[in-house]
Amino acid sequence: MRLDVLTIFPEYLAALDVSLVGKATQSGLLDVRLHDLRQWTNDRHRTVDDTPYGGGAGMVMKPEPWGEALDAVAPPDGPSQPRLIVPTPAGRPFTQALAYELAEEPWLAFACGRYEGIDARVAAYAGERMRVDEVSIGDYVLNGGEVAVLVMVEAVARLLPGVIGNPESLAEESHSGDGLLEYPVYTKPVSWRGHDVPEILLSGNHGKIAEWRHQQSISRTAERRPDLLAAWGAVLAEDEDADG
Ligand SMILES: COc1cc(COC(=O)c2cn[nH]c2)cc(-c2cccnc2)c1
């Protein structure tokens, strides 16, 4: 997979060279290219922002540098186009399902917005030749899209075959298995500062352990994410109807 990141703070993305993503890059599974948007400015101050039409606080990222950057990174007459991801509070939710979908893409490009955002015509222009997704990693406001890109790239890269050591561990994760939150995990020592590992996990009875873990997932989900449980309940009801 080729990954391009367009940003005015390329150094923010240095973290991509560490750990999982770093290994994937070294092994050739990932081809990560960072681009400083200011490379495509033409004035002495390398300006990337200006005041918003219609008034309002803050500044907006100018369209011209973005248009030239996109044309340089993904030439309009090129053999293929990337899928462009724009992290923004106004985006569709980034979910494990979307991470799996993005992991199938041969080429992703991420546009890191700063200030109050990017002139809306940039997404419209890019949309003339590539798929554009405005995506939110959560309901809060960051100063820029860079950390959101780090989140999304890690979530996607670890799904690529060969990137994560133990593929089985992917199946049991929260948000990727049965739609419930993951159960609590324990390791040695069996007793630690007055806290003991639940007996059932020491029993060797794998059926009962699986049942206990499932119950833990359900109670955790009910307590922390009732929204997921509602969705899960609906799926269960559907299955029961289907089973008659
Ligand atoms: C592209 O347009 C953007 C991008 C970002 C950075 O991303 C996030 O904050 C984010 C991504 N998932 N969840 C939050 C922030 C703003 C922004 C800033 C201040 C006021 N209003 C909007 C605009």
Structural overview:
With 244 residues, the protein is an alpha/beta fold. The chain is 36% helix and 17% strand. It is built from 8 helices and 9 strands. The protein binds the ligand COc1cc(COC(=O)c2cn[nH]c2)cc(-c2cccnc2)c1. Residues 86-89, 113, 116-118, 136-138, 140-142, 144-145, 148 line the site of the ligand COc1cc(COC(=O)c2cn[nH]c2)cc(-c2cccnc2)c1. The site of ligand JDE has 17 residues, from strand 5.
Radius of gyration: 22 Å
Q: What is the helix/strand order?
A: EHEEEHEHEHEHHEEHH
Q: Strand order of the main beta sheet, please?
A: 2-1-6-5-7
Shape: elongated
| Class by alpha and beta content | alpha/beta
- pLDDT < 50 stretches: none
Kindly, what is the distance between the CA atoms of the first and last residues, rounded to a whole number of angstroms?
Answer: 44 Å
Count of beta strands: 9
Q: What is the typical, i.e. mean, pLDDT? A: 93
Ligands (ions, cofactors included):
ligand JDE
* Overall helicity: 25-40%
Strand content: 15-25%
Count helical runs: 8
Largest sheet: 5 strands, parallel
